[in-house]
Amino acid sequence: MTTAARDDRQATGRRKLWGHQNRTLWFWVFVGPFVLGLGIFTYIPLGWSVYLSFFDAHNTVTPSDFVGFGNYTAMLQNEAFTDSLWTFLVFSLFIVPATYALSLALALMVHRQRRAQAFFRSVFFLPAACSYVVAALIWKMSIFNGVRFGLANTVLGWFGGDQIAWLSTTDPPWYWAVIVTVRLWLQAGFYMVLFLAGLQRISPTLYEAAAVDGARPGWQVFRHITFPQLKATSVAVVLLLVINAFQAFDEFYNLLSDSRGYPPYARPPLVYLYYTALGQGQNLGLGSAGAVLLALIIAVVTVGQAKWFGLGKKEAE
Amino acid sequence: MTISRRGLLGASAALGLLSACGSNTGRDDGGSGDGPKLSQWYHQYGEQGTEQAVKKYAAAYKKANVTVQWRPGNYDEQTAAALLTDSGPDVFEANGPSLDQIQGKQVADLTELFDGVKDDFNPAVLAPKTYDGRIWGIPQVIDMQMLYYRKSLLADAGVQPPKTLDELVDAAKKLTTKKTKGLFLGNDGGAGVLGGTPLHAAGLELVTADGKVGFDDPAAARALGKIHQLYADKSLLLGAPADWSDPSAFVQGLTAMQWSGLWALPTVQKELGDDFGVLPFPKDGAAGKPSVPVGAYAAAVSTRSKHQQAGKDFLKWLWIDSTERQEDFALAYGFHIPARISLAKKAEKLRKGAAADAVRYTTEYGHAEPLLWTPASRSAYQDALSRIIKDGANPDDELKKVVRKVSAELGRVKKTS
């Protein structure tokens, strides 16, 4: 028997074992564990949380006192919860456009770079690999602590400025400078990479045609060629940024909380719900109602945003 | 080397089995006794040697196989969550236990363990462990907080140690210089750590003995307004790298006075020698009196434990009968007051200097957060206090909102009982 014939027979045998006839089996072998994990760790807790939200559930996950929409009413009337939604709104209104602009600017800068492009790409991307917790602690303890040997206060001291208690002052609210800069530093590099991918997909012929038509390089080309061509990337970036802003927890918690709690300012919804449901409060019914409300708000904002950007419209047509 | 798909699947399955074996409930690893296996949880103490000490105590107990888990991080949240499941501890330290934990039947009744020794436990810390006439936790050690002041800095500024809240505001202002602030009440300006202390200083309470709001009184707004004055005068140190519980800011000269705990005393003594003194929180108004907050972690038994009686027996042995271990735990590593009056009285380290002052303040002015002061009440009050201190919010208006919230909470817990 020739080598080719032996290989052919072996291949046929493998096909019988792994092949088309048992695709369903192999599909479930590979996908099943993940579906099971998703069910156990995501969908069942999600469903249970919705169930809990209709009960008075202090220190229990198997409650018996049905309260209907009582928890929802209480949560919506709760000043601390509604304040946390405003906090989110202020945060996202600033962080989404700021990160968008900064990451796009970095991408354009790096894209034009003829030398050491990989180096600069890595430098700007590296913070994305840093943990939010670690970055928040560095910001809090080294750069923006409120005493004279903090980095920011040392620099202020060089120019004769007074010390600023960055995280403890509400008027002016300097804590926003700390929160926003740490997140910008952490995430701008990641979105820069997305924009770089978008920029690389723009056909050079478009720029050549623009040049032939007399478009001036710089702002005119950016406005009429680059920016419109980045629409798909921009939609994805803004969507991700808004969802990420909603999920803000790590840097807020590590910058502003202490062993005794969390100040009422700059408290995003997830931090508030953490203290209500999982902290010593252990009011799992009320916390679940807040989580459901938050999930609904995220869903409405995301769908509204997708509609506004016309996401998926082209594919449907 | 290439890995076949079959090999990869096999390896994954093996890893899965291994990780399943590693799901540690703390019940099956180690321990030295012969009886049932007990898991005991402690929060992470800052003092060196404490972890080894509690492991040594556990190993010395022969009627059960006790495994200690030393848990860093947000301990109160960890235990609260663990008590909802079957994988929590059998016996554990509780920063409480809280009223919801007691009413939710998450902790066992330990009253019988106190037969004949109940009067020897400091009543200030035993009261918050008592509900419906039953005792739900054994106080381990007493922690108290007080005001540390630097004698030399006060003398240089011509300031006397403050005896009233007005004097404190005045002293903090005089002691504030370009390099040193007058007072450190924590990086949040005191909203978190002070709690009910200013209210007690004004002669009020968080919750009255008959279960009503204890600070629906103009004196409360007046006292809290003075804490805002400290902030408005820029006398408060804010944004220190280490918070109020750590004496670093005080010993480094960032502040002339600091609110901290008794546990900080050995460090302050080591760094400053005799150049410091301690005071209770100063009184406010004619009806006021000095105020010293006290608290105690308690040893409790989880009702989800399969070995509740064994857990109770172990806790009786450790926190009721083994007085030498209780003294060792309180004073050999860190600096705490033993929860037993007889032990506190004979402890040599607590008999002189600032330590003796601290013990005296605890006895004369000590108050603990009442059991009816629930986390929801606490966070509503802390939010209001933060707004009063930092935003200059009207104390009357803020306190009215808190009174409404706390009244509702008191109504809820009374309905549950």
TrEMBL record, chain A:
InterPro entries found in the cross-reference section: ABC_transporter_permease, MetI-like, MetI-like_sf
Membrane topology: Multi-pass membrane protein
Subcellular location: Cell membrane
Bilayer-crossing regions: 25-46, 85-106, 118-139, 174-197, 284-304
Top-rank taxon, per record: Bacteria
ABC transmembrane type-1 domain span: 85-305
PANTHER family reported in the protein's UniProt record: ABC TRANSPORTER PERMEASE PROTEIN, INNER MEMBRANE ABC TRANSPORTER PERMEASE PROTEIN YCJO
Family: Belongs to the binding-protein-dependent transport system permease family.
Protein name: Sugar ABC transporter permease
Automatic annotation (TrEMBL), chain B:
Alphabetic keyword roster: Cell membrane, Lipoprotein, Membrane, Palmitate, Signal
Gene3D superfamilies per the UniProt record, alphabetical: Periplasmic binding protein-like II (3.40.190.10)
Keyword check for Cell membrane: yes
The keyword Cell membrane is annotated on this UniProt entry: yes
Entries under InterPro entries matching the protein: Bact_solute-bd_prot1 (IPR050490), SBP (IPR006059)
Position of the signal peptide: none
Domain of life the protein comes from: Bacteria
Pfam families the UniProt entry points to: SBP_bac_1
PANTHER family: ARABINOSE-BINDING PROTEIN-RELATED (PTHR43649), POLYGALACTURONAN_RHAMNOGALACTURONAN-BINDING PROTEIN YTCQ (PTHR43649:SF33)
Protein name (database record): Sugar ABC transporter substrate-binding protein
Organism whose genome encodes this protein: Streptomyces durmitorensis
